[in-house]
């Protein structure tokens, strides 16, 4: 049977130990684990950049804030663009006046040409001036819309959803197009493992890893193994739940698979510690008896998060009862 990496076979019980109030000891294959340090890294770090040059007049986020893609995080203004917009507004007003006058002249010429008071060429000239006035007004309005859009691009938007890592500029800074105003780490963080070369042969994509934090074990899996060995070290990436709550760059202790061996693992709830000694209540034909056992290292897995290795005192086939069952 192929090694399952974390545990080959783990305590085949038809019903959970809590439901049966008993536990049948079996021989299992335990994964040897090695503790390594992993660094919390962002899968992608993207810069939020300016699209126009000018002065940074407002900054809406600070280091550590969470942002969503498309959210405005800063505003850049350029006084030159504002003056150009005012000039275009004036040009549009003048073009509208010229269009109104050209329309009046065309209507008058249209009336006079029918009565023969003016020549056909004068009528054609009035019609041409009306068309030019209309086109000029449309051009000015399009130029204003383009400039308005250019001014609106002063809003600096978050390119991705994530957490703001750094803000290298402050309000009042003069920036150029393409300058970075913030770096944003995408929320799906990874654990970057630094593993000795000797253990590289044991690493496989999909292998489970265990993260110990605040006395609790969480489980993830290896998602990527980098094919290059540098200074006797192998780099691998692992995913784990709730990594978004970590600080980027934080170091976390991670246990990885480093071989396997046979052993006995039972739930910690079936161990009774009295006066510094560990006991387990063993079921017998006449009742139960407390026998001393030697506790080993914790061996938590996703299926048995409170698993503990037993070094001596138990044999496969023993049936354990909850503490207090023996007299």
Automatic annotation (TrEMBL):
<dbReference type="InterPro" id="IPR006143">
    <property type="entry name" value="RND_pump_MFP"/>
</dbReference>
<dbReference type="InterPro" id="IPR058625">
    <property type="entry name" value="MdtA-like_BSH"/>
</dbReference>
<dbReference type="GO" id="GO:0015562">
    <property type="term" value="F:efflux transmembrane transporter activity"/>
</dbReference>
<dbReference type="GO" id="GO:1990281">
    <property type="term" value="C:efflux pump complex"/>
</dbReference>
<feature type="domain" description="Multidrug resistance protein MdtA-like barrel-sandwich hybrid">
    <location>
        <begin position="44"/>
        <end position="183"/>
    </location>
</feature>
<dbReference type="Pfam" id="PF25917">
    <property type="entry name" value="BSH_RND"/>
</dbReference>
<dbReference type="Pfam" id="PF25876">
    <property type="entry name" value="HH_MFP_RND"/>
</dbReference>
<keyword id="KW-0732">Signal</keyword>
<keyword id="KW-0175">Coiled coil</keyword>
<feature type="signal peptide">
    <location>
        <begin position="1"/>
        <end position="19"/>
    </location>
</feature>
<protein>
    <submittedName>
        <fullName>RND family efflux transporter HlyD</fullName>
    </submittedName>
</protein>
<feature type="domain" description="Multidrug resistance protein MdtA-like alpha-helical hairpin">
    <location>
        <begin position="85"/>
        <end position="144"/>
    </location>
</feature>
<comment type="similarity">
    <text>Belongs to the membrane fusion protein (MFP) (TC 8.A.1) family.</text>
</comment>
<feature type="coiled-coil region">
    <location>
        <begin position="78"/>
        <end position="105"/>
    </location>
</feature>
<dbReference type="InterPro" id="IPR058624">
    <property type="entry name" value="MdtA-like_HH"/>
</dbReference>
């Amino acid at each position: 049977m192929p090694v399952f990496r974390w545990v080959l076979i783990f305590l085949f019980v038809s019903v959970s130990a809590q439901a049966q109030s008993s536990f049948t000891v079996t021989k299992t294959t335990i994964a040897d684990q090695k503790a390594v340090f992993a660094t919390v890294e962002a899968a992608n770090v993207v810069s939020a950049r300016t699209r126009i040059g000018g002065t940074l007049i407002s900054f809406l986020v600070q280091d550590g804030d969470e942002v969503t893609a498309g959210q405005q995080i800063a505003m850049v203004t350029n006084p030159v663009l504002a003056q150009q917009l005012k000039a275009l507004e004036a040009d549009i007003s003048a073009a509208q006046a010229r269009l109104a006058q050209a329309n009046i002249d065309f209507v008058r010429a249209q009336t006079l040409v029918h009565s023969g008071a003016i020549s056909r060429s004068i009528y054609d000239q009035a019609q041409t001036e009306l068309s030019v006035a209309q086109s000029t007004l449309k051009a000015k309005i399009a130029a204003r819309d383009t400039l308005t859009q250019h001014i609106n691009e002063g809003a600096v938007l978050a390119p991705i959803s994530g957490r703001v890592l750094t803000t290298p500029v402050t309000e009042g800074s003069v920036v150029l197009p393409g300058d970075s105003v913030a770096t944003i780490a995408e929320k799906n963080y990874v654990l970057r493992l630094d593993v000795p070369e000797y253990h590289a042969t044991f690493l496989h994509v999909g292998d489970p890893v265990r993260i110990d934090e605040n006395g609790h074990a969480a489980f993830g899996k290896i998602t990527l193994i980098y094919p290059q060995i540098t200074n006797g070290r192998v780099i691998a990436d692992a995913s784990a739940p709730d990594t978004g709550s970590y600080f980027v760059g934080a170091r976390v202790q991670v246990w990885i698979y480093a071989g396997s061996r046979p052993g006995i693992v039972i739930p910690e709830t079936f161990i009774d510690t009295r006066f510094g000694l560990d006991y387990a209540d063993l079921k017998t034909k006449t009742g139960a008896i407390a026998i001393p056992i030697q506790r080993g290292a914790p061996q938590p897995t996703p299926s048995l998060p409170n698993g503990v290795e037993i070094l001596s005192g138990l044999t496969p086939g023993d049936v354990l009862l909850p503490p207090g069952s023996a007299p």
